[in-house]
Amino acid sequence: MTEQQETPARPDRTDRRNMDIGICPRRSRKKMLHILNSPPDSTQRKLMSALSLGYHTLEFPLYEENTPGDYEDLVDLIFEYNQVLCWW
Prior knowledge:
The structure is a single chain. This protein is an alpha/beta fold and 88 residues long. The protein has one domain (26-87). It is built from two helices and three strands. It has helices at residues 42-51, 68-80, and strands at 30-36, 55-61, 83-87. The protein has a three-stranded parallel beta sheet with strand order 2-1-3, with helices on one face. Strand 1 (30-36), helix 1 (42-51) and strand 2 form a beta-alpha-beta unit. It is flat, with a radius of gyration of 21 Å.
């Protein structure tokens, strides 16, 4: 007299719509923007790497030749990213 109960279907964990590449599946990764005023040395690179673990990162070098449009893009990036670090 035991009835078999149907188990509810579990969502597929490999469904690409629910996952982001990285450590935290089903969550979007935080974004970190590094604004560089001068070329970083090896110590700065190590620190940048350590701080960026678990983040989607982008570097914006100010020491290279930039057009006025690039600076407009930088302002947009500052508001888009969760954390902004400036390196001198």
